Amino acid sequence: MSSWLDKVKWNTDGLVPVIVQEKGSHQILMHAWMNRESLSQTVETKKAVYWSRSRQSLWTKGELSGHYQNIESIRLDCDFDTLLLTVRQDGNIACHTGRHHCFFMSLVDREWLVTEEILKNPEDIYK
Amino acid sequence: MSSWLDKVKWNTDGLVPVIVQEKGSHQILMHAWMNRESLSQTVETKKAVYWSRSRQSLWTKGELSGHYQNIESIRLDCDFDTLLLTVRQDGNIACHTGRHHCFFMSLVDREWLVTEEILKNPEDIYK
């Protein structure tokens, strides 16, 4: 009944990396991790649920900010060990810094330059 | 002199996950890993060099297949622990199965369905 969950090759910590891409813009919003339970809940609720390695707990993206990620599609790669989500991002903000996405530093002449603006002050997101 | 390499938060194995996105199509081609040396060589050669965890060695993508990945941009995320490459894919094939990209299984009604065609027989790629 949950054989689709068994097809995923969870690592020794029971996790797989997850790439999160925005439907429409095709931008990469973030990179996260899932365990079996978070993938199961993601499919059930149609909202992204990750595994927080720092807090060692399930984490429904948006539970504090309201910036939920609504699932459009879930893909698995050739090694069965990485997931790709396509999502619709509530609030247009995926990053905890208040930016649209998390990949806001670009390598230019061997320096990391910030190349994305802050859309909302994090203090106003998490209050 | 290599302080940009020190800004990256390498994990306990000295690695970071790498998302590889195609310029133009914006498709996610693959997910890989880099260590300090592979990122350094990637910047130097402008071709993607990864760390193969299975072979425990540096791996210039395309060295066997000719399907090199030419670097357009390199980004780092808010946690300094994930890279996003934008590349031009030689040969239009990134996956070792002969497909354009590696994320060719889609979850449909709790089943993984193959949703991408094989463009070239792997036996004809790796010979």
Summarize the structure.
The structure is a homodimer of 127-residue chains. Helices cover 14% and strands 35% of the residues of chain A.
The ordered string of helix (H) and strand (E) elements of chain A is HEEHEEEEEEH
Which protein chains are joined by the largest interface, and how many residues does each one contribute? A-B, 35 and 35 residues
The CATH H-level homologous superfamily of chain A: Phosphoribosyl-AMP cyclohydrolase
Count of helical regions of chain A: 3
Ends apart, CA distance between termini of chain A: 41 Å
- Provide the helix percentage of chain A: 10-25%
- Profile the largest sheet of chain A: 4 strands, mixed
Topology (SSEs and partners):
Two copies of one chain form a homodimer.
Chain A (H helix, E strand, L loop, with lengths): L2 H4 L8 E8 L5 E8 H10 L3 E4 L4 E4 L8 E8 L6 E7 L15 E3 L4 E3 L7 H4 L2
What report would you give on this structure?
Two copies of one chain form a homodimer. With 127 residues, chain A is α+β, with helices and mostly antiparallel strands. The first copy, chain A, has a single domain (3-93), classed as Ubiquitin-like (UB roll) (Roll), CATH 3.10.20. Chain A contains three helices and eight strands; from the N terminus they run αββαββββββα. Chain A has helices at 3-6, 36-45, 122-125; strands at 15-22, 28-35, 49-52, 57-60, 69-76, 83-89, 105-107, 112-114. In chain A, the strands form three sheets. The first copy, chain A, has a four-stranded mixed beta sheet, with helices on one face. Chain A has a two-stranded antiparallel ribbon with strand order 3-4. The first copy, chain A, has a two-stranded antiparallel sheet with strand order 7-8. In chain A, strand 3 (49-52) and strand 4 form a beta hairpin. The termini of chain A are far apart. The mean pLDDT of chain A is 96.
